[in-house]
Design a protein that fits this description.
A six-stranded mixed β-sheet has the order 2-3-1-4-5-6, sandwiched between helices. It has one domain (about 10-180): Pyruvate-ferredoxin oxidoreductase, PFOR, domain III (Pyruvate-ferredoxin Oxidoreductase, domain 3), CATH 3.40.920. It has helices at about 25-35, 85-90, 120-130, 135-145, 150-160, 170-180, and strands at about 10-20, 40-45, 55-65, 75-80, 100, 115-120. It has six helices and six strands, in the order E-H-E-E-E-H-E-E-H-H-H-H. By secondary structure, the chain is of the alpha/beta class. It starts with 9 loop residues before the first strand and ends with a helix. Helix 1 (about 25-35) packs across helix 5 and helix 5 runs antiparallel to helix 6.
């Protein structure tokens, strides 16, 4: 799918990385954005026994029609933030799918020519902007830029809904990270 194209009617996304990178939060925000847009949504988190440092991934499905199963085996969108996730999921992406790779953490390049692949140093961009650990939301902003699954306003509203009362001081950083990705 190219930039500026019509919205996908059944977006099947897997986001994956290490625990502590905000992968499950990525999925939560994406799912809320879909709900705000009035779409059918499923969100299924998965992580190893170690929350921080263990592997984590989530499946997010945003569709125009009811979703029969939240299970995604062949995503049409993949976001990876570590090498283990890249190795596990890159060959499962549907032909024509979109892949975002945080190349500040993953040095491999795919040789697949049947997918749209974007390499973005999300973790470095977040750090250089003084945000710290917001590479996940930089990736989310970039995914939305490329696939147009929701409006920026819906994404901002989803972030406002997802940031807990005790973390309201991080709201501006969350929004800034999305903007960095959207402009990358």
């Amino acid at each position: 799918m190219t930039r500026g194209a019509a919205k996908i009617t059944d977006l099947k996304t897997i986001a994956a990385g290490f625990g502590g990178q905000g992968i499950l939060y990525f999925g939560k925000v994406m799912a809320y954005a879909g709900l705000i847009e009035g779409k059918e949504v499923s969100w299924m988190p998965s992580y190893g026994p170690e929350m921080r440092g263990g592997t984590a991934n989530c499946s997010v499905r945003i569709a125009d029609e009811p979703i029969g199963s939240p299970l995604i085996t062949n995503p049409n969108a993949l976001v990876v933030m570590n090498l283990l996730s890249y190795d596990k999921f890159i060959d499962k992406v549907e032909p024509g799918g979109t892949v975002l790779i945080d190349d500040s953490l993953v040095s491999k390049r795919t040789d697949r020519t049947d997918i749209n692949c974007f390499y973005l140093p999300a973790t470095v961009l977040s750090d250089k902007a003084g945000l710290g650990y917001f590479g996940n939301l930089v990736m989310l902003g970039k995914l939305n830029k490329e696939l147009n699954f929701c409006s920026f306003e819906s994404l901002a509203a989803a972030i406002k809904e997802s940031v807990s009362a005790s973390r309201q001081s991080l709201l501006a950083s969350n929004l800034k990270a999305i903007e960095i990705g959207a402009n990358a």
